Amino acid sequence: MSIFVDESTKVVVHGLTGGQARFHGLRNRDYGTKVVAGVNPAKGGQEVEGIPVFASAALAREATGANASFVAVPPKAAPGSILEAAAAGMEVIVCITEGIPAQDEARVYSELQHNYPKSRLIGPNCPGVITPGECNIGITAGEIALGGGPVGIVSRSGTLTYQALYELKQMGIGVTTCVGIGGDPVPGTSFVDCLAAFQADKDTKAVMLIGEIGGTAEEQAAAFIKQHVTKPVVTYIAGVTAPPGRRMGHAGAIISGNTGTAQAKMQALAEAGVRVASNPTEAGELMAEVVRQL
Amino acid sequence: MDLFEYQGKQYFARFGIPVSPGDVAQTPDEVVRVADRLGYPVVVKAQVQVGGRGKAGGVKLAADAGQARAHAEAILGMDIKGHTVHRVWVEHASDIAKEYYASFTLDRGAKAHLAMVSSRGGVEIEQVAAEEPAAIARLHIDPYEGFDEQQARRLVEEAGLDPEARAGATKVLLALYRCFVEGDADLVEVNPLILTPDGRVHALDAKVTLDDNAAFRHPEWEEFAGAAEMDQRERLAKSYGLQYVGLDGFVGIIANGAGLAMSTCDVVNQVGGSPANFLDIGGGASAEVMARALEVINTDSNVRAIFVNIFGGITRGEEVANGIVTALGRVDIKVPMVIRLDGTNAEQGREILRSVESETVLTAPTMMAAARKAVELAGGKL
Questions:
Q1: How many other β-carbons are positioned within 10 Å of the β-carbon of residue B351?
Q2: Which of B216, B231, B278, B367 to mutate to test the interface with A (most CBs of A within 10 A)?
C-alpha cells in the first residue's frame, strides 16, 4: 500500500518533447513508472522514444486512460498546464517547476478548489512523489529509495528529502511513499493532507516530516497530529540559524518576527508528541528507534 | 525584492493610489531644488529599508530652503540601525486629520489573500495587533474570486474609519489590491494612510515587497533593482545567479538545495561554529557553478574554513567530484576546505576527490563529521 501513486498510476508528461520534461519523464519511465503519453499542443501525433504525444491532456487521457500528470514546463506555462491537467480529469498532478509567481500559484490553487476539487496538485517547486518500486513522478533519484514501508515521508525540502530517503535506506528501512510538497508559499498538497493519507494507509506505520522555516505549515501539522494521528512521527526542521526577515533560497523559507521560526515549529511539534531531531542524521536514527519498537 | 519608500510610491502611482507629490534626492543641493519646486513646507525622509527611521531622526519637516538644506546634510550619510542613508525622499508636507492603516498580503496558512485595515495608523501595526487585536479589521479574499467594491466598503466600515474617509479609503483599497495582484507584490502596506482636513485620503508611506519570481512579466522592475541594499558578497553572488545570503560567522557554506544549505548552517552552529553565509548552488553542482561559489566565498575575509556539503541525487557523485576538482584548479582558495559528498555514487565521487586531498582540502563521510572538522580548522570551539 501507498498514498497518492502506485503501480496502477498512468502518467502523462506535459512538454515531453523537450527540456526538463523529456529528461525527467524518460528517467521516470526507466525507473518503471507507467509513462503512457506526452503532451505538446504543436506536436500531437509524434512519439518520444516510443511514448505517444498528444495535442492536449484531454486527448492523452482519452487515448491512454492516464490518471496523472507530470508538469515540468517553465514558470510562464506551468499554471496553464496544471489547469489543463485538472480539466482533463487527472487525479494527481505533480508540478516540479520552480519560480512560478506567487499570485499565479494562489489563483491556481483556488481555482482547483472551486472547479476541480478531485484533482490533487503536488508542488509546485517540489521533487515530486515516489512509491518505491511502483511509481516515481518527479526528480527524485529512484535508486536512493528503498520500498516496502513501514515509513511514510513528507517534506518541504528537496535535498533533505533525498537525504532522508538515503539515511533510511542505509539502515535498511523502507518507505511506503515519499511526498515532496515543495517550499513555495501555496503548495497544492500540504503536510496535513499527507499526514491524513498516511494515517489511513495500513502499510505506513510511522511518518517522517521534514520542515523548514517560514509559514505556518508545520504548526498546522502539529495541531493535526495532536488530534488525528496515532502513528509515531519523527521530524526535522531546517533553518534554526536563519536570520529573521531573510529569504533562504526558497520562496517559502522566509521568517518574519517570531512567527515561522524553527524553534516555534519544533516546540509545536514536540508538544504534539512528535520526536524532534536536531539534524538530518539524528532524524534517521530516531526513526530507526521508532521502527525497532513497532 | 523590497522597495524603498520612494520606489513604492512610484509603484503606487502607476495603479492610481494617491500619494503626495515628491521626488528622490541624493545631495543637499538636489533636496533644495526639489523642495523649491514642490513648495514649502516639505518633509525630508531617509530612504532605508528598516523601521523606526522617524525615531532615529531620519524624517524632518522643513519650513524653508535653509531648513531643507540643514536636514538634508544631517540625514544623508546617517546610519540608521546599520543602514547608511544614500537617498532621501522629499515631498510636500501634508496636513493630517487622521492616520489609518491598510495592507494586502498572502496568508499562507489560509492559502488566501488577506486584507487588513485599521483606524489606528501611524504606529507599529504589530503593536496594535498585540495590544488591541479588535482594532484591526481582517478579510480573507479568495484569489480566484477577487476583491470587489462591496467588500472594500464593508471592510472600511468594520475598521471604523471616519465617515468622511470611507469613500476615499474604499477607492484606495481597490487600487491597492490591483497593485498587489497585477503588480505581483508579496506585500503592499500603507502606514499611515491619511485623511486630510479637506477630506482627501492618500498614502503617506509605502511598503512594497515584489515577488522576484514575477520579474519576467515586469520589465519596468529593472529600474528598482539597481538600488537594492546588498553587500559586496551578495552583489557578486547575484551576478552569478547563486542563491546567497551573507551572515556574520566564519565558516563558509556551499551546499546544493535550499533545505540542505540551511541545514548545513544549523549543523555548523550546533558543533560550535558560526556560518558566514547561506549558499545554495542548486541541483547540478557543475564545475562552473562550484568555481563561482568558491569565488564568492573567497571575497569574504571573515571566512576561516569552507564546508562544501553536496548530496548527489540525479547528479551523480563522480560528476560532482569532477566539478569540485576542476573548480579547485581554477580558483585559489585561501582557507582550508572540508568536503562531504554523499548520495548516488558517493563512493566513486570520494575516490576522485582523493586526487585533490591535502592538508587544506579534506573530505569527511558524514555531515556531522564534516561540520566538526570545518569548525575545528576555522579555530572554533567544539
A1: 13
A2: B278
